[in-house]
Specification:
Lyase, Ornithine Decarboxylase, Chain A, domain 1, eight-stranded parallel beta barrel, binds ligand LLP
Length: 423
């Protein structure tokens, strides 16, 4: 359930007409509903009520500080994967003791930043990272709290690019080899072993891979116990899928219940790293039709709707062939037409939808690209020197810009014509 609904043929976000926002902010823009963000966060988090747990929102999915600050107020933590995300999370008021740091390529500088901030856990992904972290911590005279991210070799049955828990993926440490690494880490002076973590992929629509992973983790924790290593934190990553089209993902409550059932006597604080399931359907992208055109040359007539948002604004369709529903902001009665919705970028791969039946639209109409809250704005780029879109949040009858549309000046910030060209 989300708060993007039609009232008298017009799309509203909570109690604000989307068209009114467009008038004030211009297009394209990302639009988030506070009520939906709240609801989705709580739907996830409350599933684990009564269990010792931390919901660490995956910052990469939607990293605007307004959104992070909202989750901080709901008691959320952060799952970060870069120094930049750590900066955002701290800036938004997320306590360091609720921040966990994942990712295969943490630099020395990033490790230092995490240690300075005093984060809860580093999810270490290789032996070399362990060595580096131990050295940096020793130079700083501190101890680094760690988990290892293990790779349980589970098929998440999702898109190949976002499947991470298989042995062939670059993530984590093969679970069979990890015990020795724990033993090694346990003997190190400047790291302290606290947990085990895994993340098997994103946009999962089945519960079974999560349960399979959890079973493997439980068996693994028992093996560690046999070696005298006790585990305080078990991190199950993110990955719960959402409805973009006709998917049937588990409700967060079902996911939580299945995990509860599997835990039985396990005594550890659970950590979750959900991203998409919280923000995906809490945000849309709004774009304006610039032109419509038809190419009659080929075998069959092809219709295009050219909009002012492109693959630089929302990459998912081009990159993953992902489906995003597209709806007119003001419902029209015209005969539907099968169209490609394309952006202004000079690439054939620049599309938001292909062969999609849409109600007839014309120049100046607004379209809402649905389910764009996760991996939408955060994956945007400046390709074709396009300033990144504005971001707006609605709360009941009010709305506020939470990120200004990028300016032309911002596009060339930091660039300079070298002195030797002037000579
Ligand atoms: N934890 C880790 C370690 C991750 O790598 C990810 C996502 C998450 C948590 C959050 O997963 P979620 O709950 O959002 O599924 N750009 C792709 C998705 C990439 C996901 C990367 N990792 C997309 O647009 O579908």
């Amino acid at each position: 359930m989300n708060h993007f609904q039609y009232k008298n043929g017009e799309l509203f976000c909570e109690d604000v007409a989307v068209a009114d926002i467009a008038k004030e902010v211009g297009t394209p823009f990302y639009l988030y509903s506070r009520a939906t963000l709240n609801r989705h966060f709580q739907a996830f988090d409350s599933g684990f009520e009564g269990l010792d747990h931390i919901t660490c929102f995956a910052v990469k999915s939607c990293s605007n500080v307004a959104i992070l600050s909202l989750f901080a107020r709901l008691g959320g933590g952060a799952d970060i994967v870069s120094g930049g995300e750590l900066f955002r999370a701290l800036h938004a008021g997320i306590g360091p003791k609720k921040i966990i740091y994942s990712g295969v390529g943490k630099t020395e500088e990033e490790l230092r930043y995490g240690l300075e901030a005093g984060i809860l856990l580093f999810n270490v992904e290789s032996e070399q990272e362990l060595q580096r972290l131990n050295r940096v911590a020793s130079e700083m005279g501190v101890t680094a709290p760690i988990s290892f991210r293990v790779n349980p070799d589970v098929d998440a049955k999702t898109h190949a690019y976002i499947s991470t828990g298989l042995a062939k993926n670059k993530f984590g440490i093969p679970i069979q080899e990890a015990v020795e690494l724990y033993v090694q880490a346990d003997a190190m002076e400047h790291v302290e072993v606290r947990g085990v973590s895994c993340h098997i992929g994103s946009q999962l629509t089945l519960i079974s891979p999560f349960i399979e992973a959890l079973r493997k983790i439980k068996a693994f924790v028992a093996r560690l116990g046999d070696r005298g290593i006790s585990i305080q934190y078990i991190d199950l990553g993110g990955g719960v899928g959402i409805i973009y089209d006709d998917e049937e993902p588990p409700h967060p409550k079902e996911y939580a219940d299945a995990i509860r059932e599997e835990l039985s006597d396990l005594k550890a604080t659970l950590i979750f790293e959900p991203g998409r399931v919280i923000v995906g359907n809490a945000g849309i992208m709004v774009t304006e039709v610039q032109y419509t055109k038809s190419n009659r040359g080929g075998e069959k007539e092809k219709h295009f709707v050219v909009v002012d948002a492109g693959m630089n604004d929302l990459t998912r369709p081009s990159l993953y062939g992902a489906f995003h529903a597209i709806q007119p902001v003001v419902e029209a009665d015209g005969d539907p037409l099968v169209v490609d919705v394309v952006g202004p970028i000079c690439e054939t791969g620049d599309f938001l939808a292909k062969d999609r039946e849409l109600p007839a639209v014309q120049q100046g109409d607004l379209l809402a690209v649905m389910s764009a809250g996760a991996y939408g704005f955060t994956m945007a780029s400046n390709y074709n020197s396009r300033p990144r879109a504005a971001e707006v949040m609605v709360d009941g009858e009010q709305f506020e810009i939470i990120r200004e549309r990028e300016s032309m000046e911002a596009l060339i910030r930091g660039e300079k014509i070298p002195g030797f060209l002037e000579k």
